Prior knowledge:
The longest helix is centred in the middle third of the chain and has 14 residues, at 250-263. This protein has 463 residues and is α+β, with helices and mostly antiparallel strands. The mean pLDDT is 94. It has helices spanning 14-22, 53-57, 101-110, 125-133, 139-149, 233-238, 250-263, 280-290, 314-324, 329-332, 348-360, 392-401, 409-412, 417-430, 440-447, 457-460, and strands spanning 2-9, 31-37, 41-47, 68-74, 81-85, 88-98, 152-160, 163-167, 177-181, 184-188, 200-204, 210-214, 217-221, 230-231, 244-245, 248-249, 271-274, 298-300, 325-327, 336-341, 365-370, 434-437, 454-455.
Amino acid sequence: MSGLFGIVSSKDCRQSLFYGTDYHSHLGTKKAGLAVLNRQFTRCIHDISTSQFKSKFIEELPKLKGKKGIGVISDFDSQPIIISCSFGKFAIATSGLLRNKNELARKIMSGGGSFSEMSSGMINATEVIGKLIAKKNNITDGIKYTFSQIIGSMSILILTKEGIYAARDITGKTTLVVGQNEDTFAITSETCAFPNMNLKPVLELQPGEIALVSREGIRRDQSNLKNGKICAFLWIYTGYPASSYEGISVEKVRENCGVNLAKNDRIQADLVTGVPDSGTAHALGYSMASGIPYRRPLVKYTDGYGRSYTPASQGIRNKVAKLKLIPIKSVIEGKKIVVCDDSIVRGTQLKNQAIEKLWKNGAEEIHIRIACPPLMYPCPYLLSTRTKKELAARRMIKKIMGEKNFDIKDFLNEKSSLYKKMVETIKDELGVTSLKYQTIDEMVKAIGLPEEKLCLYCWNGKD
Ligand code: SF4
């Protein structure tokens, strides 16, 4: 994924830009960049796969003087990109997944265009978006044209001399929120960036909306609005607990998920816990509703690793992930334990990092409770890393059905015998006492938005 932050202030903005962007570190582990506009554009980009955003950018701050700027943390390409075109110069950063990138790039090249930001060896999606925008006579028309051309999802920040243009993804998967204090406007993917900067959220853009945010205020263009669907997974896993989307708190939704899981459960357990960090609030909700005490049989050691530490090889990544969670035997031994987690993607991390450690340290029973239904489809909008065959549910379906023909719908209905068989098979593979997933209806209820306003593609495959 990626996270965006922009700021327009009456005073030098570099510190606020730096900390505001850093509050998006949970959304990306590969690249980060900042751009400010003083008399000229100044930009810096770093690889953050082996060290945190802060340590890479702190030394850049003296040169990033300016009253407006944009920042991005990303799992993909280097950005922001600076583009010069017929209507001037701009810096652009994007968040989303451009599925027809190569096709759009080919069209641009066949019209005589070229691409320069090839540091990853591939065409840079943000450069493609910038070049599409530059085809029109101004930023607003350029963004509208771009939204008509892209497949996938894309929220955009563009730094210009008039201010920052913010455009929310036309499919609504990600969001952008504008905040304000006495001398500053800011735009963010994650509202957790606001409270400690004394910024109050004043506007959440609609899907397809474009806003020019400047010292003079906010100028909105709603001529291109669409009925978007926001990513439900933001609340379940990817978003930060202290953020809100559509005015709905992530932490509160996670607690609601835990409450719902507990309401439908009859487990006699000694303690409930969450797989740190993303399972914690789900488990707190479970504890509140069940009366089973919340305890910490596993604690996370982050000092020295940092959130963004991503070693290059998968083998070392697994090892680091395993080293981070430390079991506390005196809390585990002889106990019946409910473990809440946000989701099961492959299942290997849950098994290796939590379940094995609990058994090894003398757990008597382990009951896994998952805050969303089984993941059935890889995300085509935001997360490019998964494939269908990696998903635990799909692997178990293959195990159950072999080469037989089947209708996937039979595995989506939680009342069907095939669904139950699939969950039982995942339970056996994890090696736990019991396993339950939240239903899609309960998850939607926990979020509190109408179903038609939520992207649920991960679970039901419906656009
Ligand atoms: S497919 Fe899943 S992760 Fe992707 S936008 Fe939809 S709900 Fe979110």
